[in-house]
């Protein structure tokens, strides 16, 4: 699984790379600028749950540890060399499963420009060609922007999970999407997205 991390991936003006401590200022600015837009979709801690990292540095340390252990891949998304959001691969399972989950967010000022479909396509292609077999993405039914990402990528819905994740202060239903290595099109998902954007 060492082929999974660390890695830098590119498509046009979009770069996906390991999240670093140096991203702190830009990360905080993006979260502050987009707070109202992101809040309905942000994970929260349920009563009795494990607390979230108190600082950006603590978040990076936790995610780096997960990457070293082969349990996660914390990516930053850059547009023209500037921080624009994150794609995080989490819950990597080996053994007979070889699957993981992907989550993502983007600075509101970069939304609607095709950045996140390219970033997610790069990450999914990388995971499915570097040892994982299945990638899952879970999205709230009301989150039309995130649903548009999987639609553009052609990742199909495989289920529905009531009260699946604690989001915005309560347990929320999620639609479940998944793709396996056998379902990758020729040229990968990134080829599909780039051809759509070229039209």
Task: Give a description of the structure.
By secondary structure, this protein is α+β, with helices and mostly antiparallel strands. It has one domain (2-198): 3-Layer(aba) Sandwich (Aminopeptidase). Helix content is 32%, strand content 32%. It contains 6 helices and 8 strands; from the N terminus they run E-E-H-H-H-E-E-E-H-E-H-E-E-H. The chain has helices at 24-33, 35-38, 56-68, 115-129, 144-153, 188-198; strands spanning 9-11, 14-18, 73-79, 82-93, 99-106, 134-139, 156-167, 170-180. It has an 8-stranded mixed sheet, with helices on both faces. A hairpin with a 2-residue loop joins strand 3 (73-79) and strand 4 (82-93). The chain is globular and about 45 Å long.
In this structure, how is the largest beta sheet organized? 8 strands, mixed
In what range is the share of β-strand residues?
25-35%
Shape: globular
Q: Span from first to last CA?
A: 36 Å
Task: Tell how many strands the DSSP assignment holds.
Answer: 8
Mean pLDDT score = 95
Low-pLDDT stretches are none
Structural class: alpha+beta
User: How many separate helices?
Assistant: 6
The CATH architecture comes to 3-Layer(aba) Sandwich
The CATH class name reads Alpha Beta
Radius of gyration: 16 Å
Kindly report the name of the CATH homologous superfamily: Gcn5-related N-acetyltransferase (GNAT)
Which fold name corresponds to the CATH topology? Aminopeptidase
């Amino acid at each position: 699984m060492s082929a999974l991390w660390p890695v830098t991936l590119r498509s046009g003006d979009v770069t996906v790379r390991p999240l670093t401590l140096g991203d702190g200022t830009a990360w905080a600015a993006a979260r502050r600028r987009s707070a109202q837009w992101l809040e309905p979709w942000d994970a929260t801690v349920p009563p009795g749950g494990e607390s979230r990292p108190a600082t950006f540095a603590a978040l990076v340390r936790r995610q780096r540890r997960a990457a070293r252990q082969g349990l996660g891949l914390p990516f930053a998304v850059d547009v023209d060399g500037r921080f624009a959001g994150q794609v995080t691969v989490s819950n990597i399972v080996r053994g007979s499963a070889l699957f993981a989950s992907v989550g993502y967010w983007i600075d509101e000022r970069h939304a609607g420009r095709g950045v996140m479909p390219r970033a997610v396509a790069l990450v999914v292609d990388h995971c499915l060609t570097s040892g994982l077999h299945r990638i899952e993405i879970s999205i709230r039914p009301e989150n039309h922007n995130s649903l548009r990402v999987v639609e553009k990528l052609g990742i199909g819905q495989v289920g529905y999970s009531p009260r699946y994740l604690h989001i915005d202060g309560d347990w929320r239903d999620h639609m479940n999407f998944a793709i396996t290595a056998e379902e990758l099109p020729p040229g990968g998902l990134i080829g599909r997205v780039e051809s759509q954007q070229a039209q």
